[in-house]
Sequence to fold (254 residues):
Amino acid sequence: MFVAATTLCYPQLSLNDTIERLAHLEFSHIEIDIREKGNHVKTADVRQDLQQVFNVINSTRRLTVVGLNLEIEDQGEAYFDTFKDCCELAKFSKVMNLSVESGEHGTPFNEEVERYKKLVKIADQHGVRVAMRSQAGHLSADPDTVSVICGHVKGLGLALDPSQYLFGNPNNPMTYEKLAHYIHTVYLRDSTAEKIQVRVGQGIIDYGRLINVLEKVDYRRALCVDIQPPADPEIDHDGELRKLRLLLESLLVV
Fold:
């Protein structure tokens, strides 16, 4: 296992400025966010000029790109065409892991299964892996649903965000242990049942327990820091990122 950071930690900055900031904080691995309404890589850029985006991703200085987080707004077949382009980008960039959103609550189960079967087939053709990302308000917010979907779709993984299973469930926090063998990527911050993000050390995310669960399934991929800019300007955002990086690294060397 190793520590990484997602570029979503700095959604307000350009990709170059984000990379510079994360390098300054001594991260060595990053995940790049791809969405049409973001400031980093836009899905339209991937569709229209794959070579240019490839050049951008491969100019990340000393930082290694370990994954792509995709938020694709296209509908119908255009959705799969854009995903295919992202798979080609990942293949050319030697990136193995792609995280994608699951359907919102109310999405028919069979429809979601068929969508993921098609995504996995496309990903397999490019030698990359696709994982559904844990998200409150989506089908992936329920571990039982995740287990059933991944059981129906061979090769589909989980981009685990433990905060999504804790937030909003003060009396019955959902557990993720049974999903361990599906995990392709992990996103981390500190959280409580009342707040999705709090200062590191003020929440109840048990990082040591999580790492122990991952070690049991021989997980060797990223623990990706995902701390959004705080609403309180008095909180040192850079300091929070650095603090979680150091904490996770200390747990990995024990």
In short: DSSP finds nine helices and eight strands in the chain. The first strand starts at residue 2 and ends at 6. The beta strands are 2-6, 29-35, 64-71, 97-100, 129-133, 157-160, 183-188, 222-225.
